[in-house]
Amino acid sequence: MTTEPSARATNAPTVAEYLLSRLAAAGARHVFGVPGDYNLRLLDAVVDHPDLEWVGTANELNGAYAADGYARVGGFGVVLTTYGVGELSALNGLAGSFAEAVPVLHIVGSPATAVRQAGAPVHHSLLDGDMDHFVRALDEVTCASAVLTEETAAMEIDRVLSVVLERKRPGSISVPADLVDTPITLTASTPSAGAHLAAPVSALAESATAMLESARSVVVLVDHLARHGVTAELDALVGVKNVASAVTVAAKGLIDESAPGFLGVYVGGVSDEAVRSAVEDADVVIGVGLWWADLSSGGFTVKLDPARLIDVQPARVDVAGEIVDGLPMANALVTLGKILTDRAPLPVREALPAPFVEEPSPCGALTQSVFWERVQRFLRPGDIVVVDQGTSSYGLAPLRLPSGVDVIAQSLWASIGYALPAALGAQLAAGGKRRLVLVTGDGAAQMTIQELGAFFRRGLDPVVIVLNNDGYTVERAIRGPKAPYNDVAHWNWTALPAALGAPDGTSVHRVETTSELDKALAACEGAAGALAFVEVVLDRFDTPALLCRITESAARQNGA
Amino acid sequence: MTTEPSARATNAPTVAEYLLSRLAAAGARHVFGVPGDYNLRLLDAVVDHPDLEWVGTANELNGAYAADGYARVGGFGVVLTTYGVGELSALNGLAGSFAEAVPVLHIVGSPATAVRQAGAPVHHSLLDGDMDHFVRALDEVTCASAVLTEETAAMEIDRVLSVVLERKRPGSISVPADLVDTPITLTASTPSAGAHLAAPVSALAESATAMLESARSVVVLVDHLARHGVTAELDALVGVKNVASAVTVAAKGLIDESAPGFLGVYVGGVSDEAVRSAVEDADVVIGVGLWWADLSSGGFTVKLDPARLIDVQPARVDVAGEIVDGLPMANALVTLGKILTDRAPLPVREALPAPFVEEPSPCGALTQSVFWERVQRFLRPGDIVVVDQGTSSYGLAPLRLPSGVDVIAQSLWASIGYALPAALGAQLAAGGKRRLVLVTGDGAAQMTIQELGAFFRRGLDPVVIVLNNDGYTVERAIRGPKAPYNDVAHWNWTALPAALGAPDGTSVHRVETTSELDKALAACEGAAGALAFVEVVLDRFDTPALLCRITESAARQNGA
Fold first, then answer.
1. In chain B, which residue's Cα lies nearest the Cα of A99?
2. Keyword Kinase: yes or no (chains A, B) (predicted)?
3. Contacts of B496 in chain A (CB under 8 A)
4. Labelling A267: which of A193, A468, B49, B434 has CA 20 to 30 A away?
5. Can you name the residues that pair with A313 across neighbouring β-strands?
6. Which of residues 490-529 of A touch B (CB under 8 A)?
7. Is A495 helix (H, G, I), strand (E, B) or coil?
8. What residues of A are in contact with residue B81 (Cβ under 8 Å)?
9. How far apart are CA B94 and CA B102, in angstroms?
10. Closest approach of B55 to chain A, Cα-based (Å)
11. Nearby residues of B427 by Cβ (< 8 Å), 6 or more positions away
């Protein structure tokens, strides 16, 4: 026998094995993305990993959207692309994750270390010798990034991942192709000392107790920075007897809207009047994860009295001007909940009027208003609802969601086309155990339609509803209602599922009236286990009322 | 009559009018992109402009690809997006224009000046108060950029446009929404003094004459930096009697391949041997626009003797080490052509063997080799051929193109999915007067398929050929021939045109044999005036020979 050099001289894991084990430990079970020659070795490692599954998407932007949707349901998402072409294509998706505080890791398979150091003019580079153009572009939309080297790979992987998970923002790790199978140099990590929370808990109690004990009305107002890791604490807080609650448009689904204390959606001065006054006139508002943006604040028309506001941020609480630092959001919510539970019960609140009044005629043409009333009835506890920005997200906002419904929407970054790939990620994160209902517009769906094929490829069973209003109605509401630039190509929507791989017998419907819609939704109920597709034909100028109010406000601001 | 304030107090054009007039003066007749609320006023101005037409694309990456394809045919392209979501989505397209030296202007409709200055948390921003994240990302892939202000708008528009047109690289101009209708402050521009070219012309003649006069063989070797503005001068140079010529894979279509002196495609050490030796052993090689990249150089295996090389760059010539600066490429080519015309005729060259030897059996399954032989016969003088990176571009490379054929491909940046939207741009740039043949793979087509709808919407008539080899065969040639990550969703390709808006009676074909292909191509000939679609089923491991040779070389380098 000849002596062959051992393939692996050490028992240390390779860089790829180490990285993938960290992803799995952070809760990822799927990795989304597109192959490219700089990442193929890395993909071999993904395919070989016992706890990870590769989910190829049709392009990288869709992969980033899918990872974002996955993280919103599962807590953490991963997109993996190739250098240059792939990482730039994904960039808009990563930026959305940044704007909306979603922890996504972008892994880039990049040219070998020697090629990078030499600045060789390889494909997917700008051919100008500078190999760092794209990581600098990524740095604009991530909270941490690293280009791995042999010496620092373990440390850098740990650093980027911990920042991503801590700050709930996207990060990127670039893996030069030569390092994939290199044994990793492990650095002994010092376990971080447990935070000493007794002091800030006392400080918060001291600041907040008098305010909460004397209040006759308390509203918990939840915004999108409360998305991750505080579900149980939020549920407990809004469950305190006679505490009222409201959400921003960016926080739909974060609390139980079937609870008796739920008021509705608060959008500053363009809220329904009953909700607006209930929030703004409350003796105390406990804000949870508030981070106002134009669309969530009704064009910056929020009026919350700082003297009556307890503002709970991810690591800090502001109690009417007194700052308590170093307290995680979960602990702050528990502390405030305890004060409210221990005090004398809050007075009973007056009930608000029910949000829906529409009495649709079953034979007339469909309207947005009727459509959303039907969605209200169609939703079940535990559903995942994915809505694209535009008429879909603003149509959904006023609904009273059944308990346990997650809403996936990009309400603030507002990149249309997001919803369809995000639905792929969300459904995989739920392990196929929850029904998923996707509602998107025709203009939005055209942006990313290729990902519809992924649902058939993987045998997933969402209800896909395309609101066909013949163009960009969200833009028509702002400017150019009849301008040609708000039109889109005319597609034969009901022929699309079969073209993109739907099996024979797939439930596909086109509806123009209420009764047709009712039949189609009933058929969707019956199609569980397979994708069902409904094209809903709506008037091109029919716009949910909330969208009109918000876009008027935004248009004033942008000079549009 | 009441006295109303005049809508326009001055005769000066608005910022939008000025910008659009500059685009038209630079040769743009179409503007590609997607509406968004920050750019709607700008789009009103586009729609109103007598010389410009708005071409809405299904998403922004497609818009950037279309503008790039447009610029390759028409000399200059424009993509217009909204802030944040739109500009980041387009980034990969812009980067491709940078890497491959294509002059594209990216116009971004952005938040109003006051909003930007305040760092207000508006939609499509990262909500962190920094409004310059995206222009900094764009700066990584552009040669010039500007965010317009009222005072400097005219100057900045002129500056960015002139750099884009001069350097043949992309640039970006961000137009805050409030400036669109603002009268522009015109600065008197000093006409640039005509360059004094007599001295560098003499210097080049002095350096090059002896070398060219004593040569017994001269090869003109053309690469992609010769893409713009030197067609006539190149034609004249390669038309000199007994001068030989060759192109790189990135320069297909830049010279007349039907000329007797045409050798073929030079790819360094992976060239066909007859081409390699004819180029490398020539007494003098006149390089025109050489800028070697891994894929064009056969993995950096080019061997050109610097002592026998006249290297003509866009503004500089290197004659065997003697540098002549300040001479535009066109003037250099004229000067060199004159020397060759004035000298004693070059000796007759030996003819090279014909590149195609395949004798396909008409009944057997199709192969890549047979397919490309059929494409060779199908092409006509004056066609535009658009090929995606992968088996398409490398299948086309060895063909001998009829005269006047333009080739649109992203051979170096190599972003798959580019071809389909680029074909839209290319066909519009040609004013519908030239036949366009698009060849793309299934994996590539899935990336950007929504833009197929744009051809139907505009009544365009390309021949669209999708090579269905069931996945990413270009990646399979590199690694993971049977790995799941190189598979894609199974689509019903022949059902797609109808789903995306094809009129009844559209010519759609699926072919698996040579005779079926022949019938389909004959039908395409008959379908002129309307789009024809052909799905060509090929074996998943069948790869053009040149692609195998190049990817082997690239794989070695990347450690894949």
1. B126
2. no
3. 499-500
4. A468
5. A316
6. 490-493, 495-496, 498-501
7. helix
8. none
9. 9
10. 8
11. B384, B434, B436, B455, B460, B462
As a whole number of angstroms, the distance between CA A488 and CA B57 comes to: 8
Residue A2 φ/ψ region, left for φ over 0, alpha for ψ in the -120 to 50 degree band, beta for the rest: beta
**Facing residue for A56 by CB, picked from B134, B136, B488:** B488
CA distance A497 to chain B (A): 9
- State the Cα–Cα distance between residues B450 and B420, nearest whole angstrom: 9
Vertex A479 angle, CA A475 and A483, to 5°: 85
Give burial (CB, 10 Å; 0-12/13-18/19+) of A550: buried
Helix (H, G, I), strand (E, B), or coil: what is residue A319? strand
Question: Helices B60-74 and B91-99 sit at what angle, rounded to 10 degrees?
Answer: 30
Joined tokens for residue B557: 């380098």
**Interchain proximity B293–A122, CB inside 8 Å:** yes
Say if CB A142 and CB A93 are below 8 A apart.
Answer: no
Cα–Cα distance measured from residue A208 to residue B6, given in angstroms and rounded to the nearest whole number:
58
Tell me the CA distances in angstroms from A538 to A309, A357, A392, one per residue in order: 42, 20, 12
d(CA A436, CA A454): 15
- Both ends of chain A: CA-CA distance in Å? 79
A454 to chain B: closest CA residue = B489
DSSP string, A201-252: HHHHHHHHHHHHHH-S-EEEEE-GGG-SS-HHHHHHHHTSTT-EEEE-GGGT
Q: In this structure, what token pair is assigned to residue B383? A: 């066609």
How many helices (H) and strands (E) would you count in chain A?
21, 19
Alpha carbon distance A486, B24 (integer Å):
23
Which residue in chain B has the smallest CA separation from A127? Answer: B99
Q: Which of A123, A411, A478, A531 to mutate to test the interface with B (most CBs of B within 10 A)?
A: A123
Cα–Cα distance for residue pair A547/A441, rounded to 1 Å: 14
Q: What is the pLDDT along chain A (560 residues), one digit of tens a residue?
A: 444 444 444 578 999 999 999 999 999 999 999 999 899 999 999 999 999 999 999 999 999 999 999 999 999 999 999 999 999 999 999 999 999 999 999 999 999 999 999 999 999 999 999 999 999 999 999 999 999 999 999 999 999 999 999 999 999 999 999 999 999 987 655 545 455 789 999 999 999 999 999 999 999 999 999 998 899 999 999 999 999 999 999 999 999 999 889 999 999 999 999 999 999 999 999 999 999 999 999 999 999 999 999 999 999 999 999 999 999 999 999 999 999 999 999 999 877 766 555 555 556 779 999 999 999 999 999 999 999 998 899 999 999 999 999 999 999 999 999 999 999 999 999 997 899 999 999 999 999 999 999 999 999 999 999 999 999 888 888 888 889 999 999 999 999 999 999 999 999 999 999 999 999 999 999 888 899 999 999 998 898 888 888 877 766 665 54
Give contacts of B 83-142 with A, CB under 8 A: 84-85, 88-89, 91-92, 95-96, 98-99, 111-112, 115, 120-127, 133-134, 136-137, 140-141
Segment 261-300 of chain B within 8 Å of chain A by CB: 291-295, 300
What residue of A is the nearest CA neighbor of B54?
A: A485
- State the CB neighbour count (10 A cutoff) for residue B541: 12
Q: Do A126 and B98 touch (CB under 8 A)?
A: yes
Tokens of B110: 């952005």
**What is the nearest CA distance from A426 to chain B, expressed in angstroms?**
19
Structural domains for chain B: 15-179 (3.40.50.970), 198-342 (3.40.50.1220), 368-558 (3.40.50.970)
B61 touches chain A (CB under 8 A): yes
